[in-house]
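Subgroup meeting minutes
Present: P.N., E.W., G.H.
Scribe: E.W.

1. P.N. recapped why we're keeping a running log of single-chain structure predictions: easier to compare across weeks, and new members can see raw inputs and outputs side by side.
2. G.H. added today's entry (194 aa).
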Amino acid sequence: MKKYISGKMLKKLFPKATFINISNTYVTKDSKIGSTIIYPNCWISNCEIDDNATILPGSYIIDTKIGQNCQIGPMAKIENCQISENCQLGRLEAKRSEFGKNCKAKHICYIGDTTLGNNVNIGTGVVIANYNTKNKRKTTTAIGDNSSIGSNVTIIAPNTIGKDVTIGAGAAVLANNSIEDGKTYINAVEPKTF
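Output recorded in log:
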């Protein structure tokens, strides 16, 4: 298990970074941190964080590279991800995923084993269901540039979402149901009253 460091040693190891409270921020020595602001109650291990990023309180980030001008958190849990510049990732869980430039996923959602292009917007409550319980293995999803995924959408991997796609709120995109570039996808079910 890696040893986390807090307190005055953080300033010595990461002189460019600004720690709001060094006594309850924890970072491993193998991390590389540029001129970044890190708020309290963050745990960072084996990460590379570029300049002008902000890590908000309660975030847990391991084995991840974060580009310039990103805002992460609060309370984000991110593992094994590549996050390009100008992304805003809020209270979410992300694993083994790549985020292109200018992506936004600012609210509670799960993104696993996914490649997102540039300028992708992920709404509140989105789940990318990446685990196949029958085969006991993870599957992948790709989302193209400039696509918008509405609130409470579930995308069941494996799947490919094209460029400039809009998926309406509450939709379920079943496995192997690729959506072509420029399309709008909704689940149109006639409302019924029982």
